[in-house]
Design goal:
Elements (H helix, E strand, L loop, with lengths): L13 E7 L13 E7 L2 H13 L4 E4 L5 E3 L4 E7 L8 E6 L2 E7 L4 H10 L2 E2 L11 H7 L2 E2 L2 E2 L4 E7 L5 E5 L16 E11 L2 H18 L25 H7 L6 E2 L2 E3 L7 E3 L5 H19 L8 E3 L6
Parallel strand pairs: 2-5, 3-5, 4-17
Antiparallel strand pairs: 1-2, 6-7, 7-13, 8-13, 9-10, 11-12, 11-13, 14-15, 15-16
This protein binds flavin-adenine dinucleotide.
Length: 313
């Protein structure tokens, strides 16, 4: 499929933007464009889109909230799918005793989900307070932190393969681990969260506590993609060390390349200033890795996902 010919999708219930400024849609707000951005309105049109892309060897990527993503200045080829229509953002709650299953569309916004579950007095999702993005992105990244991670409350994940086959998988079988899982490539369209009824005041207090902690330790008001690097495992104990503390100890706080800067507040955040480019961020990532290896003998792996041309998902 030649993505410059949107008429090829004209029979599908999909909003299409050609030469779409996807870099501007990320939390960094920088980086290039995609040949095509497609927002399907229904599951059927999403499946048909994926099948046509496969048949035409067109690369497919999925954009969630763009909170863990850096798009290269040269942009990306092929189709970027965004599940931002209501159909993919719905959350349906079903209570059985004091357990509530929340069937959550992959495009559901994490901030709203935290507030919604808090209002309903549902315990189990508080750990996502202050983490931006979508449910699909949080499943893919197994997002979380000191208070827990997405997999703690996940019961099922519905995955659409890039062949166009949908399957609902038991989360317990997916090997979720620190910021990862055995989930293969594909598009997460829905997940089910298992939450428990609790005193809404206690849920609210926990959400507030976590949010306040993040606000006081992370540069939440700046442009970033959250932690730039994964916390490395200690070779002796296997326990994860703080990448931020290691970068700080290497003396890199405040290091700058162009408009990209190692945050003074939290050394694992690379923040940007007006005029920054994605190339500045990528060069700073490389600089941090090289310096930390030299000075601390630690090999840091990026946590931020970097999209560039010919980098098929
Ligand atoms: C200020 C700030 C604070 C943050 N704090 C934290 C934190 O405390 N803990 C933490 O873990 N993260 C944190 N992050 C990173 C980010 O919030 C999480 O990684 C989040 O889960 C990203 O979700 P997203 O929808 O924005 O994904 P995106 O950034 O859009 O995408 C990330 C990856 O997931 C894939 N993806 C997205 N949606 C789908 C889908 N439906 N199906 C398949 N793949 C998909 C993308 O292709 C990409 O590979 C922070 C980010 C910021 C900006």
């Amino acid at each position: 499929m030649n993505p410059s010919r949107s008429s090829l999708l004209g029979d599908l219930d999909i909003d299409v933007t050609l030469d779409a400024p996807i870099g501007a849609m990320t939390w960094y707000g920088i980086g290039g464009r995609a040949d095509m951005l497609a927002s399907p309105r229904t599951t059927e049109s999403l499946i048909e889109l994926v099948k046509r892309c496969r048949a035409n060897d067109t690369p497919v990527r999925v954009l969630g909230g763009g909170a863990n993503l850096l798009v290269d200045d040269g942009g990306v080829e092929g189709v970027v799918i965004k599940l931002d229509h209501e159909h993919f953002r719905r959350v349906r709650y079903t209570a059985t005793g004091d357990i509530t299953a929340a069937a959550t569309g992959a495009g559901a916004d994490l901030f709203r989900l935290v507030q919604d579950t808090r209002r309903r007095g549902l315990h189990g999702f508080e750990m996502m307070a202050g983490i931006p993005g979508t449910a699909g992105g949080a499943v893919r990244m197994n997002a979380g932190g000191a208070w827990g991670q997405m997999s703690d409350c996940l019961r099922t994940v519905t995955l659409l393969s890039l062949n166009g086959v949908a399957q609902t998988l038991n989360a317990a079988d997916l090997g979720f681990r620190y910021r990862g899982s055995d989930l293969s490539s594909g598009i997460i369209t829905e997940c089910t969260l298992e939450l428990r009824e609790e005193d809404p005041i206690r849920v609210r207090d926990r959400v507030m506590e976590i949010f306040q902690h993040k606000r006081s330790t992370q540069p939440m008001a700046d442009h970033s993609a959250g932690c730039a690097f994964r916390n490395p495992a200690d070779p002796e104990t296997g326990r994860h060390l703080s990448a931020g503390a290691i970068i700080d100890e290497a003396g890199l706080k405040g290091t700058r390349i162009g408009g990209a800067v190692v945050s003074e507040q939290h050394a694992n955040f690379i923040v940007t200033e007006p005029g920054a480019s994605a190339t500045d961020v990528r060069r700073l990532i490389d600089e941090i890795r090289t310096t930390v290896l030299e000075r601390m003998n630690v090999n840091l792996e990026p946590e931020v996902v970097i999209w560039k041309r010919s980098d098929v998902a």
